[in-house]
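Input set for joint prediction.
Command: fold jointly, output tokens.
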Amino acid sequence: MISVAILGAGNVATHLFKAFSKKEGVFVSQWYNRHIDTLASYKNEVDVIDDLSQLKDADVYIMAVSDDVIANLSSQLPFENRLVVHTSGSVSVYDIDKKHKRGVLYPLQTFSKNAEIDFANVPICIETINKACYPLLKQLARSLGSPTKRVNSDQRRVLHLAAVFVNNFTNQLYRIGHEITESEGAEFDLLKPLILETALKVQNHSPFTAQTGPAKRHDKKTIKKHLKALENPHHKNIYELLTESIQHTHGRKKL
Amino acid sequence: MISVAILGAGNVATHLFKAFSKKEGVFVSQWYNRHIDTLASYKNEVDVIDDLSQLKDADVYIMAVSDDVIANLSSQLPFENRLVVHTSGSVSVYDIDKKHKRGVLYPLQTFSKNAEIDFANVPICIETINKACYPLLKQLARSLGSPTKRVNSDQRRVLHLAAVFVNNFTNQLYRIGHEITESEGAEFDLLKPLILETALKVQNHSPFTAQTGPAKRHDKKTIKKHLKALENPHHKNIYELLTESIQHTHGRKKL
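tokens >
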């Protein structure tokens, strides 16, 4: 049985708590947050605290807090030589106070406040400074049913960066699609099967192979029509830049 | 029973033929292509022809051909006053020779050569000049199990444009994610659940509501780290432009 203390009360912390609570082999011994009120609804399930000095011995302390808080919180922990990890994609493992055994459990997924999450769909990237810390973190991630991958700092950094492209930026393209369709009273709903199919395609094919459309075909006529139709200058810039990017990837002449 | 003649042998034509062949209520009477060899493997299933003068009477003639060919092919058809449609998102219905009854069946989906397609996931946008042509086209699309939507020219035009954003441009963001992860020997596979979850999220939430990440949070520190990490100037430009776009959509200060 691995004992875990969770620090923080955001989306990741909450999803981790709920998932651990349902799984065998893991026991959340304490849940800390600066504002204890946020944890009030869990007080019958777990020892909720707002005072770091109350933290008891645990196998792993998981700091699922804002990037900016990680370094400071780790220094305030009133013990040393225990395994302390953060869950951030972009913060260095060395930002954790060096009095601890240090590691990272980076769940590569987007967490919503309300939607239930199946950790089988959450790859967990594990980074440790000391190799000896790795097996326990792997066992912990596996207990959630998550695929795990050992990564180094550079790999975690590029995964986080790539995640911004495939998640936040992609979602913004959906948003632009929404704006464009609504501008003529067309229904965004009609695009939803296409959005899903585009994401499904790259589950089994490389994005390079999956590419289609006017940019790849160098279909100047359609590209010209589209640029003319785009009224919003931001949308026009994005259209031009991504068309160029596709043509750069797939060779031949420029826009 | 609706009789259909298909013209063209690309992805859309082939998927339509296969789908119609399996469905009740529709009969593909002939399949035309300029190069008959392309259709050789279907000659036992349908009357394949490469000579327009051999076209017999049919309820609908579907031109599933390249945008550039539509106008010319429609003029060459050796009959008039019959229902002739194209399947393009961006070509005007008026590009079809006015000797015909004219319409558009625009399937709003990405078609791959090999992957089987379920037309239940292919919304078909229907446009007609003459209202009287609409019911037959709707019945035809419904026979495939497709959701249908009557659209006007402007709506079809913006749907096609929006499809480029949510399909081609999104796929290029996946490609960039692939390049970025591989640059450090990290695995693109780790991003696949996130890609799928991002697409699933907007099936039930607006892209506006679904947005998360450093751009929306105005997390300058992370944005700066990311821009520093991006070596490819194209990727850097795309990062900056889409970050700005998110911040424009979600208010407050600029990058």
